[in-house]
Specification:
By secondary structure, the protein is an all-alpha fold. It contains 7 helices and no strands. It has a single domain, classed as Orthogonal Bundle (N-(1-d-carboxylethyl)-l-norvaline Dehydrogenase, domain 2), CATH 1.10.1040.10.
Length: 115
């Protein structure tokens, strides 16, 4: 679904581990890869307990920022296929009811959980 050089931490490979409690509780293997990135570790509680963690960056705001980046890229003629893909998935998550949720809710959306 996503290219390897994802600009945000939502590649299809990461979704299978990032969004699951197993990957954080048994992170010896995962910690060496993208799942071990400092940002993902910072968001650990949000992935483990999305409803019990305060919203730090709502998906509605993620969409706004991605739109700004897409507009700028268009102005300068930059190719941004990954950015466009990320915006599309964020839009799908918002349409599914995750707009006010933290950006970590993208993992729930990609797993097919309901908002």
């Amino acid at each position: 679904m996503f290219e390897a050089e994802s600009t945000v931490p939502f590649s299809s490979n990461e979704t299978n581990t990032v969004g699951t409690p197993w990957s954080f509780r048994n992170s010896g293997v995962d910690a060496a890869g993208a799942v071990g990135a400092p940002f993902v570790q910072y968001k650990r509680d949000s992935f483990l307990d999305p409803e019990g963690t305060a919203v730090a960056f709502a998906l509605d705001l993620v969409a706004k920022d991605l739109d700004l980046a897409l507009d700028l890229a268009s102005e300068v003629g930059a190719s941004t296929s990954q950015l466009a893909t990320n915006r599309s998935v964020v839009g799908e998550a918002i349409a599914a009811g995750y707009g006010e949720a933290d950006l970590s809710a993208i993992a729930q959306h990609l797993r097919g959980d309901s908002a």
